[in-house]
């Protein structure tokens, strides 16, 4: 195993955070489910749960994060555009998704303002019914917004819009969309994403549309508020069958923090949503999803009776005050953005992790512009039990341990010799390793 210092870990630091920090949907405090972690820092050797030669630029991970907005919903909380724009900028995301609307003058002005502020955009390009404009009008709008567009996509969940011939109409519409975008010189850099669906069987009913898209479109909301890893592999297989050899974007995914339970969809506590959303963006990137758009930035309306599930998906409350998930994502993005983009050749990962009891984890090593590496570690199937984790470093340099759901600051600074104690809930742990000399 090599020479090292064992850092015994228990529950001693539970008082450093609120006792109700994270609660599961049933209301049980996470303190009862806290995950113990043992960090073993060694000079070399040891078991490894992370492959070598696998570091990725931290800025690529940040760039994979997007958020849904509804800038044309002027009768909802999105009418307060100055606050919406300020919250977007403070969050640190670089990508937004919204629906294209040919006649929505105010929305299009807002989109242009956000584009000029540095945001990239994905636009939903209408549907066969022409609800937000005819396809040529929408392509003309995309042409005007071309400098800010990263992608456009086919109809949103059209299999649930009451059209008895939806599959045939959708196929024709997607083919026309792809041809129109590819024929526009200003839009040649823009990816064309396929249509999204509500029902899993809709992929099969529409058939192979790979020739009319650059990427498949998934809405992989984790079922029943479960962990992000619970269904992403299955969803990616559906996307691969629909568009063979093409990547798949997750244009909607997330968790709701209120409303009554529904079949396959249950609310989670705000604290658990924070833990799972920070895990989700790491899990999806590791799984090969180029971009994940969280649904959504803000709760659209107040729901004092807690009866409408649709009003609780936001990172912001209906009064536009942040939920815990907003703060957690901001902290994660800030941590990964330190030092700017990684420069030059990426180093091999300088740390590995594995559980001593065999509990499954995923890890992702990211490199920042300051030369340091960030090793993210999370359980794939949190079960409420304590699972000791072993961290192995190539060198005995001090490291910092972060938990974005708690703070933007390090939760622990671990030199080569210490008996500090740590705790880990259902959120990922991120270990920052300084660059080697």
Detail the topology: elements first, then pairings.
Elements lengths: L3 E4 L27 E2 L2 E4 L13 E2 H6 L1 E4 L12 H11 L3 E5 L5 H12 L3 E5 L10 H10 L4 E5 L12 H18 L7 E3 L8 H5 L9 E3 L13 H11 L5 E6 L16 H18 L4 E3 L29 H14 L13 E5 L5 E7 L5 E7 L9 E5 L5 E4 L9 E3 L8 E2 L4 E5 L4
Parallel strand pairs: 4-14, 5-6, 5-12, 6-7, 7-8, 8-9, 10-11, 11-12
Antiparallel strand pairs: 1-3, 2-19, 13-16, 14-15, 15-20, 17-18, 17-20
Describe the protein.
- The chain has 437 residues and is α/β, with parallel strands linked by helices.
- It has an 8-stranded parallel β-sheet with strand order 9-8-7-6-5-12-11-10. A 6-stranded mixed β-sheet has the order 4-14-15-20-17-18.
- Strand 14 and strand 15 form a beta hairpin.
- 24% of the residues lie in helices and 19% in strands.
Report a brief summary of the structure:
The protein is α/β, with parallel strands linked by helices and 437 residues long. The protein is 24% helix and 19% strand. Strands 9-8-7-6-5-12-11-10 form an 8-stranded parallel sheet.
Summary keywords:
disordered N terminus; 19% strand; globular; 437 residues; eight-stranded parallel sheet; TIM Barrel; alpha/beta; 20 strands; six-stranded mixed sheet
SSE order, one letter for each helix or strand: EEEEHEHEHEHEHEHEHEHEHEEEEEEEE
Summed up, the helix count is 9
CATH superfamily of the largest domain: Glycosidases
Radius of gyration: 22 Å
Strand order of the largest sheet: 9-8-7-6-5-12-11-10
Q: State the CATH class of the largest domain.
A: Alpha Beta
Q: Output mean pLDDT.
A: 86
């Amino acid at each position: 195993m090599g020479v090292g210092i064992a850092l015994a870990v228990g529950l001693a630091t539970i008082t450093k955070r609120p006792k109700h920090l994270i609660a599961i949907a049933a209301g049980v405090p996470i303190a009862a489910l806290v995950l113990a972690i043992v960090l073993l820092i060694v000079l070399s050797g040891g078991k490894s749960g992370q492959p070598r030669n696998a570091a990725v630029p931290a800025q690529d991970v940040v760039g994979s994060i997007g958020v849904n907005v509804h800038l044309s919903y002027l009768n909802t909380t999105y009418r307060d555009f100055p606050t919406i724009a300020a919250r977007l900028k403070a969050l640190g995301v670089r990508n937004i998704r919204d629906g294209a609307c040919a006649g929505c003058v105010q929305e299009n002005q807002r989109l242009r303002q956000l584009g000029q502020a540095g945001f990239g955009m994905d636009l939903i390009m209408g549907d066969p019914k022409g609800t937000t404009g005819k396809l040529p009008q929408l392509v003309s709008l995309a042409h005007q917004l071309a400098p800010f567009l990263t992608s456009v996509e086919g109809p949103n969940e059209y299999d649930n819009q009451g059209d008895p011939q939806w599959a045939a109409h959708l196929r024709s519409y997607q083919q026309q969309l792809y041809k129109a975008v590819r024929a526009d010189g200003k839009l040649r850099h823009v990816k064309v994403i396929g249509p999204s669906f509500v029902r899993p069987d809709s992929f099969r009913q529409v058939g192979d549309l790979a020739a009319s898209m650059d990427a498949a479109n998934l809405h992989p909301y984790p079922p029943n508020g479960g962990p992000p890893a619970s269904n992403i592999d299955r969803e990616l297989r559906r996307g691969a069958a629909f568009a063979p050899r093409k990547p798949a974007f997750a244009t909607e995914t997330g968790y709701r923090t209120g409303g009554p339970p529904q079949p396959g969809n249950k609310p989670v506590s705000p604290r658990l949503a924070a833990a799972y959303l920070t895990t989700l963006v790491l899990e999806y990137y590791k799984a090969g999803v180029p971009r994940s758009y969280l649904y959504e930035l803000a709760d659209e309306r107040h729901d004092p009776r807690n009866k409408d599930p649709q009003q609780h998906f936001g990172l912001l409350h209906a009064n536009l005050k942040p939920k815990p998930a907003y703060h957690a994502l901001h902290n994660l993005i800030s941590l990964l953005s330190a030092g700017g983009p990684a420069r030059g050749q990426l180093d091999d990962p300088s740390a590995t992790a594995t559980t001593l009891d065999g509990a499954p984890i995923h890890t992702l090593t990211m490199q920042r512009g300051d030369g340091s590496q960030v090793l993210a570690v999370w359980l794939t199937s949190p079960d409420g039990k304590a699972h000791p984790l072993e961290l192995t470093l190539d060198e005995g340099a001090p490291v910092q341990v972060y938990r974005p759901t708690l703070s933007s600051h390090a939760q622990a600074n671990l030199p080569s010799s210490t008996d500090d104690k740590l705790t880990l809930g259902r959120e990922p742990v991120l270990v920052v390793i300084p660059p080697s000399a």
